[in-house]
Design goal:
Length: about 290
């Protein structure tokens, strides 16, 4: 247990540095593709405007009586809502599917209602404000069978957490290179940026916020009844990714609990070339789980 905790600390200390390098080297924003638009949610829970992008399917403007399933894609630590459309070929991949795709802003908040900052309700604002707004503004299928959620790294953690905590809302939840052990990382005596983000989001060891948002705990304590209600879980990670063992441990627990899931371990590291390939693959997987009407 101690060895596992130190391994997690080492991995998450490096998480900020790796992500900071990835995102700080991002090119200047290009003009938005025709199927991508900027939007802003006037969030009462966050007490500030929250930006997001929407990628519409190519048939959206022509088929005005049609409703579409929605895929929510979450960014990683130090990232922004625009990463998915700026740093991958998502706008092109979207043309292969009849989905509305939404990329929310998650800050560095671990998609969690912060233990330390009352105005950072990154979980509640997505569930209680963003999703209802999307389903009001766009012709979205507003049922469980019409929603999927996925993300990379911090966003992979967030997406699986939303799937486990709100199984009535999502048919499919996916993680690419997920930082799945975030809620159990010790912050004592450490002050790196990634550790500070964990401390702000989850609070001290043994906090209620940590317990309520620990993916391993949520799965470990699941019952046959709660497992039946869960969305299908999709998990992938690159062989060269520093989070590979964390993902293997989580998938082993899923298998132990007989929770329906798919795990793919593939060549690749914790970077955009890997995530570009995997977001395209996830959209293909989503075709088998989302309603079209």
């Amino acid at each position: 247990m101690v060895k596992t905790q130190y391994r997690l600390i080492f991995l998450f200390v490096g998480l900020f540095g790796l992500h900071h390098g990835i995102f700080s080297q991002s090119p200047a924003p290009a003009p938005l593709p025709a199927n991508v638009a900027e939007h802003e949610l006037d969030s009462k829970l966050m007490t500030r405007p929250m930006p997001y992008r929407v990628v519409l399917p190519k048939s959206y403007s022509a088929e005005k009586d049609r409703k579409y399933p929605v895929v929510y894609l979450l960014h990683g630590l130090t990232g922004r809502y625009r990463n998915w459309t700026d740093l991958t070929k998502l706008p092109d991949y979207a043309e292969e599917h009849e989905f509305i795709i939404v990329t929310p802003e998650g800050g560095n908040g671990w998609y969690t209602d912060s233990h330390t900052k009352a105005e950072d309700k990154y979980e509640s604002y997505i569930v209680k404000e963003l999703i209802p707004e999307v389903e009001k503004k766009f012709r979205a299928i507003g049922t469980r069978s019409g929603r999927a959620i996925a993300g990379l790294s911090m966003g992979g953690y967030g997406a699986l957490k939303f799937g486990l905590k709100y199984p009535e809302m999502f048919a499919l939840a996916g993680s690419f290179s997920g930082a799945l052990g975030a809620a159990s990382v010790s912050v004592e005596g450490r002050s790196t940026a990634s550790i500070r983000s964990i401390a702000e989001a989850f609070g001290p060891a043994e906090s209620e916020t940590r317990a309520a948002n620990d993916l391993f705990k949520l799965v470990r304590e699941s019952t046959q009844e709660t497992i039946k209600a869960m969305p299908f879980l999709y998990v992938d990670c690159g062989n060269e990714d520093f989070l590979i063992q964390n993902n293997r441990d989580f998938v082993a627990l899923l298998a132990e609990k007989n929770i329906p899931h798919e795990y793919r371990q593939l060549p690749g590291a914790h970077n955009w070339p890997y995530w570009d390939k995997q977001v395209r693959e996830f959209l293909r997987v989503a075709e088998g789980f989302l309603a079209t009407k």
